[in-house]
Design brief:
Elements lengths: L1 H19 L3 H11 L4 H56 L4 H13 L3 H14 L4 H13 L3 H14 L4 H13 L3 H14 L4 H13 L3 H14 L4 H9 L15 H5 L11
Helix pairs in contact: 1-2, 1-3, 2-3, 3-4, 4-5, 4-6, 5-6, 6-7, 6-8, 8-9, 9-10, 10-11, 11-12
Length: 274
């Protein structure tokens, strides 16, 4: 009688466990193999099921735990962008005539491939600040991204003509084009700036780095050598010249009047011409 009662309890428990974990075939196997033998065998089979099935359930929970965070990460990657857009739009509610905020919004729309929205924001930024060089360069890039090369060419010509009388503004536009990875336009602006200020170590250096990135080592060496000659306090330029096989010699004097020009794009703390 005791065996029959245990067998009955084992059968009921095995049904609950196997169904809860989705393994009815194990119950069938246990019932088929153990029933003909003895109640003790059936009870033993139930004991095994009681140990094994919860472990399987734990493994499933671990797997779901591993896959769960990946979904959260994807949402988290998108959420800050939307929050940033909302924050910028809120800033415009209090002060719509902020060109930098419109530019930042344009950058977000541009990254999302929303060309029309990005173009609108850049034009608004330029409406409030016509000399916003980063917005100008970004507007050219948006035209290229949207497939309107003719409009991009028109914009770049207009913006370069605006800076044609100033080495400082030409340099700013060059850096803005460089930020948008518009290398050819950046080089054209560097050359324009160089014509206006041929003794700028910064402009010569940037042109040298441009040619170096294109693998044109001879041109790079020429501009970097001139940059170093104008300002020997450039360890990065000295290092590049050394790798190009140039013997570095510190000149006796440097040109002084390019200090303000070089400050335009010099990183904070970097030494410039004295």
């Amino acid at each position: 009688m005791r065996v029959d009662k245990l067998e009955g309890k084992a059968h009921s428990g095995a049904v609950g466990l196997s169904k809860a974990h989705g393994f009815p075939s194990l119950l069938t196997f246990c019932h088929a193999r153990c029933r003909p033998c003895s109640g003790k065998a059936y009870v033993l089979c139930f004991a095994v099921l009681s140990c094994v099935l919860p472990l399987v359930g734990c493994q499933e929970n671990l797997q779901s735990a591993k896959s769960g965070p990946s979904l959260k990460v994807d949402k988290a990657d998108q959420l800050p962008v939307e929050q940033k857009k909302a924050k910028l739009l809120k800033k415009l509610d209090s002060k719509f005539e902020n060109p930098d905020v419109h530019y930042e919004l344009g950058q977000l729309y541009q990254a999302d491939g929303l060309w029309a929205q990005a173009e609108y924001r850049y034009n608004v930024a330029l409406g409030f600040e016509p000399s916003h060089r980063e917005a100008q360069a970004a507007l050219v890039q948006v035209m290229i991204d949207s497939g309107n090369q003719e409009k991009a060419n028109n914009y770049s010509d207009i913006f370069m003509n605006q800076t044609a009388g100033s080495a400082a503004e030409s340099l700013k536009l060059a850096e803005a084009f460089k930020k948008q990875q518009l290398d050819e336009l950046a080089l054209a602006c560097y050359q324009q700036a160089l014509r206006l200020a041929p003794n700028s170590s910064k402009i010569n250096r940037q042109i040298g780095y441009y040619y170096l990135s294109k693998g044109e080592k001879e041109r790079a060496r020429d501009y970097l050598s001139r940059s170093f000659g104008l300002n020997p306090n450039q360890p990065d330029v000295a290092g590049e010249l050394g790798r190009l096989g140039v013997e570095v010699r510190i000149p006796r004097s440097t040109v002084k009047y390019t200090r303000n020009l070089d400050k335009i794009v010099e990183p904070v703390g970097e030494k410039v011409d004295k």
